[in-house]
Structure formats: C-alpha cells, structure tokens
Amino acid sequence: MAAKTVYVCSNCGHEEPKWLGRCPDCGAWSTFVEEVRGERKAAGFAARARGGGSRASAGKTLRLDEVGGEAEGRMGTGIGELDRILGGGLVPGSLVLVGGEPGVGKSTLLLQVMGHLGDRCLMVSGEESPRQVAMSARRLGVAGSGFGVLAETDVDVIGATILRERPEVVVVDSIQTLYSPELAGAPGGVGQVRECAARLMRLAKAEGIAVVLVGHVTKEGAIAGPRVLEHMVDTVLQFEGDRFQAFRILRALKNRFGSTNEVGVFEMTSRGMEEVEDPSAFFLSRREAEVPPGVATVCLLEGTRPMLVEIESLVAPSPLAVPRRVARGVDGGRINMLCAVLSRRAGLALGSQDVYVNVTGGVRVEEPAADLGAALAIASALRDRPLERGTACFGEVGLTGDVRFVPGTERRLRELIKLGFDRIIMPEGSSGGPTDDGAESRRGVNVVEVRTLEEAVAVALL
C-alpha cells in the first residue's frame, strides 16, 4: 500500500495535493496541515453491485411513530446552570463538545459533574495521570464519589473499555490528545481528530452513552481541529471569561436538544465552579457616590435570563488625523456605527475625538439592546455629564437614529425594578398594553419611552 501526502485545511477540511497559503474553499490563511495517507483502491458502488462484491446487507428502516421518544429521560448533572443550558440535563446517546481557553475551568466543571454522577461516569484523561486527576478531585471534594479514570489516548482501547465498563456518561479530556492506530497522522491532526470523534460518536449513538468531549481552542478563540467536528456533535458549549476575573460564562453555540440562547454564569473559587444565581448584582459595581460621566447601565437578555452590565466610555481629543475607536467587550464595528449615528443624527462632534468603550467585568456583549447604553455612555463622556443616579436603559439604535424595539421588555423591567433602578429609558411602544400586575410593580418608577437617539440623549443628560 503506497503512501501519499495531502494537505488538509484545519478550518473546513478541504484537501489539496500541495501546500497553499490560503484555502480556496473557506478563504482562511495558513490553515493547511500535512497528512500522510495510504492509497486504497476501492471500486464504486455500481461496480460492486454488478460484480456482486458488496457484502453489506440493506439497513432496516423505521417509522417515526415506532421510534421511542425521551422515555429514558435526561440525566441531571447536579449543576443547575449547566442543566439549564443543556435543556434539562444530558441526553443519553448525545455527544457534547466543551471548548474554552486553558485554565478557564472546563476540567474543573466536568469533575464536579462526575462527582455528582458517581460510579455511572468514566473519565478518559489524555492530558493528566490518574494521580493528578485524584489530586484535583480531592481539592474539589469529589474524590470519594466513585467515578472511574482511564489514562489512555488510543481510541481503540478507549472504545473497548467503554463497552466493558458500560458507563452512562464518558468524559474525554481532551479530544485533541486521542489517536487512531489506523491513521499515520500525529494526535491533534485534522484526520486524527475527525476519526476519533466519529468513532466515539458511533459508540455513543449505538450504546446510548452520553459522551462529553473537551476541546482546545485556537488563538482566535475557535475550537481547534476541523470545522466538521462542531457539525458532528449534538451540543457545543463555549466557556468565556477573563483569566483576571473570577467569573466565567458558559454559552451554548449549538444544541440539538435545547435552546442556544441560554447562558450560565459561574464564579471560580477554591472549591471549584460555583453558580452565580444573581449575575446582575455580580456584574454591577457598587458605587456609594454619584455615577461618574461615561457610565451607563444596560439590561441584556441572555436567553430567558435578564442580566445587567455597565458600559464605560472615555472620549478625549485625538492627536491623530484619524481618531481611534477602541472597544473591549463589544464589537468595534458597532461602536464605529454608533459614533457615526451620534455625530449625524444627535449632533455630537466626535470627528476629532478618540472614543474608548469598555464593558466592565470582561463580559462579551452581542445583543443589539446594548446599543442605547453604549451610545449614552459615549454622549455622557463627551459632555462630561453623568447619567442620573438610578438610571438604566436598553434599546437598539438604527442608522436613521431611531431607537428600536427589543424583545423581553417586561422581563427587563422586572429585573431593573428589582435591583432598585427608578428611571428606565427604553424604546417607544415597548410597554404596549401592560398587565395590571406590571403596572402595579412600576409604581414609583419613571419609565421614559424615546423614539430617537437624539431624544434619548436629551432625556438622559438633563
């Protein structure tokens, strides 16, 4: 069997006979890696059918009404935030991929899950020895829970062990350390990651075992390995967080058994990952004095959970011909757009000013409802005039200067009122037809509805 060398794009899996700087399929740069493969002569299906060389028997089809539903139910992980993100717990036979930067808490969280599941769980460690896993388990207080540990990277041995032990949940840390002896590539290569994940996926579906894969991330923050890995699994969970901050955010990027809008907030402590039941109070700074200029409080909606964050801004005269626009925790293009709308529609002179925007706590904000808060923070910093104490806002800003409706108004209002905000700026018409209970809860709260950004700036900076 002669061997040949091919170059595979680690981003999309496209193959080329020679190395290229840019992938012609997905357009990514410097993603081609070398793989050595053995040539196998295989006849096509038509040739095998004519020659009678196909020994495969036809598969059995099933009617959907004959297929059982969720009779087995889900398995609770013992961590409420994780169960909510998964849609109620782990589904038997599912494949879950957990990604995140080194040290963000992936292994810690999964050790706590295995501590809850006990002897129903098997951990496959390709990065740590059993002694190291035991040390971490003792630190977290789960050493006596009874789950098994297998220090192995050969996917054939792992598969045989799973079939012998028959656990309900298997945690593999990490998928990039596994290899298949049938392939010539090194562990972590595109072919190895794809083959090992496919083998574990077939095993999970056939035996009804929930498999959790831990994945490394690239310097851009994407999960390392071929893009097809994310297509193969049922659920992709991404850990986010600043290593200089104690909190972590777990976000569902893909979920075949639940919503992808849910997020979980955790705090890294010496006892492991602890759930943050009230993230709004966690992210807000506790200022006894008046709020300084350039700070605005925004109510976001992550799935079904309202969450309050503070957006800070600093505006200063620029010594450069092209002023700087620096954003941290929010998309820089969005900030450029808001600066243009503020200049053109609200009459603020930002053409010669450097603008810096930061979301406190290291939170990454993606929801359009944060537009109004970012714009008011920039306006407050430019005019050096603070927003009134107890003021919060939410709303999307359009290119025409309109403040647009965002969903979840009642939930946002309840969260803001619960935390003591008595002046709320929001889009006009958002509270259309409030219930009696909603009207009762708003007594003593000044809800200001605005139509345009210029009107919002005038109301906020009285």
Automatic annotation (TrEMBL):
Which top-rank group of organisms is this from?
Bacteria
Under Pfam families, the record lists: AAA_25, ChlI, Zn_ribbon_LapB
Which InterPro entries does this UniProt record tie to the protein? AAA+_ATPase, DNA_repair_RadA, P-loop_NTPase, RecA_ATP-bd, Ribosomal_Su5_D2-typ_SF, Ribsml_uS5_D2-typ_fold_subgr, Rubredoxin_2
Gene Ontology biological process terms, A to Z: recombinational repair
Where in this protein would one find the motif RadA KNRFG motif, according to its record? 254-258
- According to the entry, every stretch annotated as the RecA family profile domain falls at 71-217
Locate the region Lon-protease-like. 354-462
Annotated residues for binding of ATP: 100-107
What does the record give under GO molecular function? ATP binding; ATP-dependent DNA damage sensor activity; damaged DNA binding; hydrolase activity; zinc ion binding
Keywords, A to Z?
Answer: ATP-binding, DNA damage, DNA repair, DNA-binding, Hydrolase, Metal-binding, Nucleotide-binding, Stress response, Zinc, Zinc-finger
Protein's UniProt keywords contain Metal-binding: yes
Instruction: Kindly give the PANTHER family that the UniProt entry links to this protein.
Output: DNA REPAIR PROTEIN RADA (PTHR32472), DNA REPAIR PROTEIN RADA-LIKE PROTEIN (PTHR32472:SF10)
Listed HAMAP family: RadA_bact
What's in the domain note? The middle region has homology to RecA with ATPase motifs including the RadA KNRFG motif, while the C-terminus is homologous to Lon protease.
Summarizing the function annotation, the protein's role is: DNA-dependent ATPase involved in processing of recombination intermediates, plays a role in repairing DNA breaks. Stimulates the branch migration of RecA-mediated strand transfer reactions, allowing the 3' invading strand to extend heteroduplex DNA faster. Binds ssDNA in the presence of ADP but not other nucleotides, has ATPase activity that is stimulated by ssDNA and various branched DNA structures, but inhibited by SSB. Does not have RecA's homology-searching function.
Official protein name in the record:
DNA repair protein RadA
User: What is the native source organism of this protein?
Assistant: Rubrobacter xylanophilus
Lineage of the source organism?
Bacteria, Bacillati, Actinomycetota, Rubrobacteria, Rubrobacterales
